[in-house]
From TrEMBL:
The keyword Oxidoreductase applies. PROSITE patterns: GLUTATHIONE_PEROXID_1, GLUTATHIONE_PEROXID_3. This is Glutathione peroxidase. Keywords: Oxidoreductase, Peroxidase. It comes from Joostella atrarenae. The keyword NAD does not apply.
Length: 172
């Protein structure tokens, strides 16, 4: 595995399973990530008032194309420019009305800082995910996990959902 700087980066054994992490859906029901074993999962921190919000369209297209082998989980976050100010009902309505979103949307959480959700601790800390450290820089940063719950990679906000950087990992 190569790092961004061309140095070999050896994976380590994750200290916990992503499938053991608890997060709620936008309507407050607990999501069992374990039901997605055998599928890849793309986690995306989303926001309704961001310059990247149009990526909802690409995310929905990606989901519809690969839904047999991929679950997309949108995670609303208001930590970047206050661009997700809505409550659960407003977020859900926005996603459905404007983009016909069928993939899973969670409760609004913090993806960084002292109140960082455990899911994002797993996604961003090598000591937990076994692969690499990262930090969430902005809305619509994406993290791809394989069928066995191992981190594959992460993609910055500028990476479009249908980019070959992502899709090449979905057809393997």
């Amino acid at each position: 595995m190569m790092s961004l700087f061309g140095k070999a980066q050896e994976p380590v054994t994750p200290t916990e399973s992503i499938y053991d992490i608890s997060i709620n859906s936008i309507d407050g029901n607990k999501i069992d990530l374990g039901v997605y074993k055998g599928k890849k999962i793309l986690f995306v921190n989303v926001a309704s008032e961001c310059g990247f919000t149009g990526q909802y369209k690409g995310l929905e297209e990606l989901y519809e194309t690969y839904e047999d082998n991929l679950m997309i989980i949108g995670i609303p976050c208001n930590q970047f420019g206050g661009q997700e100010p809505g409550n659960a009902e407003e977020i859900q309505s926005f996603c459905q009305k404007n983009y016909g979103v069928q993939f899973l949307i969670t409760e609004k959480v913090d993806v960084k800082g002292s109140n960082q959700h455990p899911l994002y601790r797993w996604l961003t800390e090598k000591s937990v995910n076994g692969l690499k450290n990262s930090s969430v820089k902005w809305n619509f940063q994406k993290y791809l996990v394989d069928e066995q719950g191992r981190l594959i990679d992460y993609y910055m906000s500028t990476t479009k959902p249908l980019s070959t950087k992502i899709t090449k990992n979905l057809t393997l």
